[in-house]
Design a protein that fits this description.
- The protein has 487 residues and is of the alpha+beta class.
- It has ten helices and 17 strands.
- An eight-stranded mixed β-sheet has the order 13-12-8-2-3-15-16-17, with helices on both faces. The chain has a three-stranded antiparallel β-sheet with strand order 5-4-9. Strands 1-14 form a two-stranded parallel ribbon.
- Strand 12, helix 6 and strand 13 form a beta-alpha-beta unit.
């Protein structure tokens, strides 16, 4: 069994030790945190864990702001930032491996040009809150207007506390006919007060959502055994759900928007919320469900890696949580996918929750807020840190490096180090470091030039993605090709 609170504390401590730049202002700004933890565990030896990637952020850009140069971060939600930072870390580890460094997490495979993760290494994904979208459509328990009581900081020792996990449920969005009685949560009805411009869209901490009218897949039917997971009894009693600003994509079942628990549809693809120009960014629930089949490494690294890299577990910090909703969103939607290429499979990560809450969460920020500081708002910056030797820290706003002038936008100096083009260039460094005789077959004797070319040449990955799309996610929007033809 993984030490859940120890993993959580490791991530919180790592964030605390980062420089102040990009962090939320205490008592006024909130953010979300996600991280990838590398776990090394040999038989009969003590488990070793370290953070290899960490991300914060709540925003994404609108469609009009997307760049054909691949030089802007379209999605700056914490989970996406953390995964992209992990890809950067793995790319550097792969470069070390092909250069003969024995300290890499990769070791050579029997297949020429292929590598595999060391047998004692696995990866755990941590998120301080349930992923936005389907995983956050959960029953509401307790008073929606309940003021959040004090909670111990993430480093506190009383892990065995008997405080109920539901004590800090997020305030739900009010029905529209009561919208004037209380301010809505961030991302649902007011203008963004963060530093980034209006092109950035805010995603509230996943505000748990709802189910199809008359259906509640999270509620056990008569005679069905309870799982014993926290919240089972609560789910049966819930008369309402936490709501989300994420919108159903065209082609999916739309939200009924009926009162109470019938407000949302469940199990559908959603795009992250935005006002004005819509976004093309799928919810974090949808992206994480995709990773359970395709792996976290992406198309480029799959050229070199013998089999996909799947997260061993997903750990969620203390927040409104439903085990059933997490299983539905991340696992059940893709559980029936078949006919995948060799090495690809439907992987079910262990789903765990910690008792420790992130000190910069929205409820904690609201609790410590003073009226003299103005309105509570999401932090405008996104932080990326990963375990690489050069420039591990990368702070962005509006999809570009924080602090860039308008004149500098579009230049290499303004790019995030985890933008598509920068990750592509890092991958090309791996290719050029590989002797021609040791190139993987998918890259040997090929005239590949653009980012699109390299992605499409990853045949097995593209086949797996096609099967996943056809069988589970037929409404998943396709990225315009013109946004992927950079070099």
């Amino acid at each position: 069994m993984l030490p859940v609170d120890e993993i959580t504390k490791l991530c919180y401590d790592h964030f605390r030790n980062l420089p102040k730049r990009g962090k939320p202002e205490l008592g006024r700004e909130w953010t979300l945190l996600a991280a990838v933890v590398e776990v090394r565990q040999k038989p009969k030896e003590k488990i070793e864990m370290k953070v290899v990637s960490l991300g914060t952020g709540t925003k994404c850009i609108g469609r009009a702001a997307m760049s054909p140069k691949g030089d802007i971060l379209n999605d700056s939600h914490a989970e996406v930032i953390a995964r992209r930072g992990c890809v950067r870390y793995l790319t550097e580890q792969l470069r070390l491996a092909v250069s003969g460094d024995k300290g890499s997490v990769f070791c050579s495979s029997e297949e020429m040009g292929k590598w595999k993760v060391q047998p004692d290494v696995s990866f755990v994904f941590f998120t301080s809150h349930t992923p936005c979208g389907d995983a956050s459509i959960i029953p509401m328990v307790g008073s929606p207007s309940q003021v959040c009581p004090p909670v111990r900081p993430e480093g506190a020792e009383d892990i065995g506390s008997s405080a109920p996990k539901t004590a800090l449920k997020r305030r739900a969005e009010e029905p529209e006919d009561q919208a004037s009685k209380r301010p809505r949560p961030e991302g649902e009805g007011h203008q963004d007060l963060g530093r980034p411009d209006k092109g950035m869209k805010t995603g509230s901490p996943p505000q748990p959502e709802a189910n199809q009218p008359g259906e509640d897949p999270c509620k056990p039917s008569d005679g069905e055994a309870h799982t014993g997971q926290p919240g089972d009894a609560e789910e049966q009693q819930a008369q309402d759900i936490h709501r989300t600003g994420a919108k159903c994509v065209p082609g999916e079942t739309s939200d009924p928007k009926e009162p109470g628990a019938g407000y949302h549809s469940t199990g559908v693809l959603r795009v992250k919320p935005g006002r004005g120009q819509p976004t093309l960014s799928l919810s974090c629930s949808d992206k994480m469900a995709r990773w359970t089949v395709l792996g976290l490494q992406g198309a480029l690294l799959s050229h070199y890696i013998e089999e996909p890299i799947y997260f061993r577990a997903v750990v969620t910090g203390k927040c409104p949580y439903s085990q059933c909703a997490m299983q539905r969103a991340l696992c059940k939607r893709v559980s029936q996918v078949t006919d995948l290429p060799a090495a690809f499979r439907v992987h079910t990560p262990e789903l765990l929750q910690s008792s420790l809450e992130f000190s910069h969460s929205q409820p904690q920020t609201q609790h410590s807020h003073h009226s003299s500081k103005g309105r509570v708002s999401p932090c405008g910056a996104a932080i990326s840190w990963c375990a690489v030797p050069e420039q591990p820290l990368d702070v962005t706003a509006n999809g570009y490096k924080q602090g860039m002038t308008k004149k500098a936008l579009g230049t290499p100096q303004a790019r995030s180090l985890i933008s598509k083009v920068e990750l592509f260039h890092a991958f090309q460094t791996v290719v050029t470091s590989t002797p021609n005789t040791h190139l993987p077959a998918s890259l040997r004797d090929k005239e590949l030039q653009t980012y699109w070319d390299y992605k499409q040449a990853a045949g097995a990955y593209q086949q797996a993605w096609q099967q996943l799309r056809v069988q589970a996610f037929p409404s998943w929007p396709r990225s315009p090709r013109e946004l992927l033809e950079f070099r």
